[in-house]
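Standup, Tuesday
Yesterday: got the pipeline producing structure tokens again.
Today: sanity-check two examples.
Blockers: none.

Example 1:
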Amino acid sequence: MTSHKRVQHTDTSDNPIQYLKSKIDDCYPFFEEKAADFRKRDDDEVDKHNKVTEEIFNRKNEVKDAVTKEALALVEVMKSIWDTDSNPVKSERERLCQVFKVDFPEINGLVSLNEDICVMFNKDDRRFKYFTISDFKFITVKNDIKDVSTKERYGSVKIFDITNYKEEILVSDDTFQLRRLKNDGTFQKVAPSITIDQLSFYGIHAVK
């Protein structure tokens, strides 16, 4: 007796879901391949972008370094032409500041007592400063003398002018009219007998 194997065929025509699944299974390798291809393309573009970004960054640093070096070189050239820390104008300004630097705001009178000693005064501060100049430097030769004289009704005596008289100072003011500032720092009133009229001396100058 001859035996026959029964082959079972699955008919999906009557089973739409099973049919659809089989079709998807058939197409899956194609889409998987395309997806892998797109992933590779995307990775390649990212790599290109990163390389371009790195090149731009490196170039920027190269340009920055080159500009910095050039700027520093120009600074050195400018220093060789004009040094802001050491130049003739600054040196002369410093020298003049040393010569004429005083500790009151402005000078209202300046006279020479002799070849070495000079005196200047400030009318608001009423202070007399004795000084000399050595090696282009301002050097005080004794303590300042301040006029502390006051008038009876109006307070401080106002000094108008000074002049040299026999290596001492003659002072004109609004109260005593004329006074002598002696070298010992004391004041002595001078009574001029020029006229009987009441005079106000706003300036004074002595000659030989």
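Example 2:
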Amino acid sequence: MGDDCCNVESMGRITALIQRHLGKDTFVHSVKIGDSINDDHNAGFFGQIDQQLDKVCEELSKIPELKHGFNAIGFSQPSVHRLITFGSPHGGVSDIPNCMNPKDFTCRLMRTMVHHGVYTDYVQNKVIQAQYYRDPSNIKG
């Protein structure tokens, strides 16, 4: 949620940590959804998750180092040998977490949109978090 692939203050830090612990000979790839770091950050809030997942699968299928399978750490559920997740929404979420950075306008905008109409077609087709939000008192949504 608002992370991006390469920023040292975001997933770039995780990538560097893994590389440091596993060694320089280990291939580590951080998935980028947007065309820039800013677009990648915004893609964590807005878009259609199915389209993003298709893009990620296509990207991963073109990386020669991954052709025989891979281990993954992340916020998604592709076919992998091992999956280590950090707070991933396997069955959906019943609340939208607070923004890590209170000055992050895109996060605040996303939270406002979700809180004012999580099950509307517009929000469901634009806001990533709304697409896996599950109101426990309205499961069918």
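Quick observation on example 2: The chain has two domains: 11-84, 89-140. Strands lie at 71-74, 82-85.
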